[in-house]
Amino acid sequence: MFTKSLVKSKRVKSISFHPKEPMVAIGLHNGGIQLFNYESNKLLKEYNDHEGAVRGVDFHVSEPFFVSGGDDKIVRVWSYESHQIKYFLEGHADYIRCVQFHKEYTWLLSCSDDMTLRLWDYPEERCISVITGHENFVMNLSFHPSQDLIISVSLDKSIRIWDYSSLEDRPLIKDVYDGLHGNATDSQDEKKEKEKEKEKGGIRSKFLNFKMFQMFDIIPKFVLEHHEDGINWGCFHPTQSLIASASDDHTIKIWQISEEKAWLVTTLSGHTDSVASVMFDHFDKDVLISNSEDGTMKIWSLSKQKCIKTIHDISPDKFWCISHHPTAPLYACGHDNGTILFKLRKTKTPIVETKNGVVYISDLVIKEFNLKTDETTTLLNLKKRSSFSFVDQLSVSTKSDAYALVTEENFEVFYKANYGDKKYLKYVGTGKDLFFLSPTRVVFLSEEGNISIKQLNEEKRIRIFKQKETLYSRIFSSYPGTILVYYSGKLGILDLEQKMISKKISVEELKNVVWSQDKQYLALVCKREIVICNRKLKKITSIEENQKKVKSARWGNINAIFYTTKSQLKYLLLNGESGTIKTLENSPCFIGKIHNNNIIYFDQNQKMYVTKIKSNDYLLKMALEEKKTSEINKLMKETKFPGHSMVRYLKNKGYPNIALPLVKDPKIKFDLAILSNDLEVAFSLAKRLDNEIHWKRLATVAMKNGNIDMVEKCYQRSKDFGKLSFLYLVSGNTENLNKIYKICQNKNLPNLIFQNSLFLNSIEERIEMLIQNGRTSLAYLLANNNGLSELAEKIKNEYLNNDEKKIQNLLKFQEQKKQESNLLLTPTPIIKNTNNNKNKSQNQNQNNWPLLRIEKESKINLTMNSNLNEQTIEKAQGGWGMDGMDNLDDLQFGLDFGVSNNNDNGNNNMEEEEGGGGGGGWDIDLNLENLIPKDELNELNSSLSTTKEGSQLDNNLFIAPTHGKSFANELLETSEIPVEFIASGQFDIAMKLLNRQIGITNFKLLKDIFLKIYLSSNNTLKHFPLIKSISNPIIQKNKKKNMRTISPIDLEFLENDLLQNAYGAASKGNFSLALENFRNILFLIPFLIIEKREEQQHVYQLIKICTEYITGFSLEMERKKFQNDKSQIRLLEMAAYFTHCDLQQTHLTLALRSAMLLSLKIGNHINALSFAKRLLEISTIKAFSEQAKKLIPYCKKNLSNKIEIDYDERNPFVICSYSYTPIYQGFEKIQCPYCNAHYLPKYLNQTCNVCKLSKIGLQCDGLNILKTPQKFKK
């Protein structure tokens, strides 16, 4: 049996499952009705209108109703949506024992201690038939699932089967509620008309022609009387003609009915007290479930007519009722202390993956499905051979044609003595986790926790390994010679020969281990996590499902594991990538095999499905991981991937060339082209963007790739004359170097003129430049040193005024430096430029660096992408040049500056590059006289001169600039973060945000923080006297130009300073100082600004830590007030509660030691023993551990508690932070919307006792301190 949920409450008298929602209605002996969600373990609603026990509840099959009946003799039909009573039915004269809706008609059946059954038409709120015949209390009743029959049982020891087939008028639920409320297609007038008819009472006659049923319409068909005492429960079998009854005579009787007669089949004995209730299993038709006032539950086999399992440890008290889910294998039993929801078996179909498909077991028939042939064959029918009614695990040895069935505690192995025999032998044993080590050997885990190996054709059993202190809890298959063992939260590899565990990994709540096909990787399937390891148990990657449980997992190939949660099929790659494939319709589902993107899976009803994986996201990631070029090309051409998420993924994974076709934004596309070295695409995008930054980036990448031609073009576009000059120097392109020199002269760039004159080794030009810039002494020395005597004499006479003294000093200086100096010559080019206009097309790419030819593993050719990468591979000498821009002749130097070359009589002006005129060229004005005819030019000049005066008037006009947005106004549109509004001085908006997000109402404690944030987030500029100073916010802008306030409160400060100070004070026992520090952290957290989601998780964790410590320390300080309490009950209770606060290990050790010693002092040895055991598990302090070890045997000898306290450590609870009392699981509780501290419902709307800020129980949006670009929605 697998427990689903435990609901603690008063005595439970009735239970009903909702047919669709994860919800149960629980009728209590104290008159309450609880609606409980068993998925979230939360109490949804409690109704307390009944006076006395609620002995019957039932959910409606389609409408949002449930019915209840009890000791107040009234049947109530409730709406669980509006939480109001829908219908009110009176008529019974004594306690109502059971109520039930009909599945098809608007009927409601009830039975009572007044010895009658009543059939109600609940929409009309009237009784339509009173069924009499019993002579004592009628305890239970039920409609037949498919026939017109009713069963009722009574304390008069009789079972009565009633036939209502003669009833003629049968109002269908659909018809009645369409009539009463109107169809979805009805107009408003039609709906109003129907409401009027309903008020008049005519709606029923219009739709149903209803009439009062007579007594003889429902007649007794059979009366069964074989029980020796009163009968408490009776029910029909869901598919067979069987009835089960439970009696005070401690027995269960099974009856067979036909059209003509009914007879007793068998009597099931085993209970030692009154059998309270009985129920057929709706999924396993051979199983019967009963519970009794003896505190036990029994599972019976109908075919074997005996009890196959007795469950003792659910309730120490009496059972009263039982119920089952209409469509799921889920059951519930009510007892004196609450309700238990459980499953009899795992809903997972036992599956074994094979080479071509799967082998699975359904209804004790082992079948094989072949995925290639799409055929299912029966391998072995075990219905008559096996003693099991259901199986948890299947193991198969195809080589020896052997099969093993494993349940929770037992197993059966069916094998052949010799291969080829037709007869199967059977080996039965006690144990679990059995699997085949070889065709004739199995290994399993015994009840004692020992690993045992069995040779099927021998009687000998070999015990091979047992750890001294820790017993194994699970074992799993592994590679040959080893098995996997799980114990104490660790998984290890056990070597069968050496009997040693070689490798270990820590993993919690391990459910299964799934090996990859090549046995190189294994997936550890936990309750809410999957961990992938290599065969040495070294962790590779993992994924955690916080909200949902992992149901199953299978390897798709060596790179991916597929797994299912309750409603989704997901995947995890070895590189850590994960995603969702699809949402499953028949949930929960369990994967059988993944092969060639086909998936075989089973639902909880053991129905098999085969479907195709159609997730393009997964297929692309797998194709990239496996480098399948053709698959990538196909997906990129046929699939439209979502915008930036896939582009970002491809970019981060090193596939920018694949992401290139997905992008339209030129800036992003340029970045991808640069990363993928697609220089042609990058160049065309740079021309569109025409930005200096992009030209420089492209030049850098082109230089790394040796594309000198493209480097030249980028320098030309970005007008980087210095780098362009050096490029021509190292490449020996003196022709273009001369042109650059002339450009620098026209632009009057002295530094570049001098630099280029050095590069060109032009001494006269250098001398001329020095003279023009007033450096006449240097010009004289340069001329004299290079033997230009005439020029030196000219400088001496014209610029130095024949100052002999100065000249002598210069010559003396020259003589001194001659010995130390060398002649400066132009360096030899690295690659000689061979370009000329005659063989331009032939030698176009000769300037580029030669590249080594390398063969790539794969070539990915995508649409919208160039073939540049293939060209660079195929051409050994480069080949990355571009047409139409070979040299500076394409840049119209002659036209811009009136500069001509010496050849061709000065008419060889450089022409503009094709298509480049829009880029601005070299930003030099054209000569209009050469472009516009003279007569038109004169007209333009005259018109300009006549309007000159008017233009001056227009230029004097002042146009006021438009008023821009203030920082405060921009925040209203872009932010939801409170601290930003505080920084801008908008305290009122910040307070509204904090109230809406986390329910803060007590702002007095935050006044100083508000003021300090405002003052530290603004700077003040002083103005003229008596004029108010100007205050400006301190802001910063990110790359997207979004403004961001710089918060003075830092997360690192809270974690590293305040939190550590709080921990330090706690360790020293200074609880008041620790409380102050923890509460200060809670005060400051709402004023953080974070930009990473990882930091957001840190903040949530920080809030949880502070809440736990404040609750614990406040409880401990309150406990000290009870030191003088003579009873000492409250003193010990609070010490026990303190040990359940989530503290650091050191502090929890101190709390456990205090509770242990206090329990020992008072004489509660059972409690002291519990605290001592917990202390031993976590303590790292030797002295404390020794104390606990000494105390344990002493407490075991005196196993008793002197005083009774309200403390149950086995039942999960939280602590109310006001009353400091436990709130056990299943009881209603409310929380603080900020710190999530727990409280009893009576403290609703009070100020939280932990954070001192928020109002308890408010429904809020949640704290928003994460800075995102999303717009603020007013």
TrEMBL record:
A Pfam entry, by short name: WD40
Main location: cytoplasm
Organism the protein comes from: Anaeramoeba flamelloides
The protein's name in its UniProt record: Coatomer subunit alpha
Transmembrane stretches, start-end: none
Start-end of each WD repeat: 47-88, 89-130, 131-166, 224-265, 268-310
Residue ranges occupied by any COPA/B second beta-propeller domain in the UniProt entry: 366-601
CDD domains documented for this protein: Coatomer_WDAD_alpha, WD40
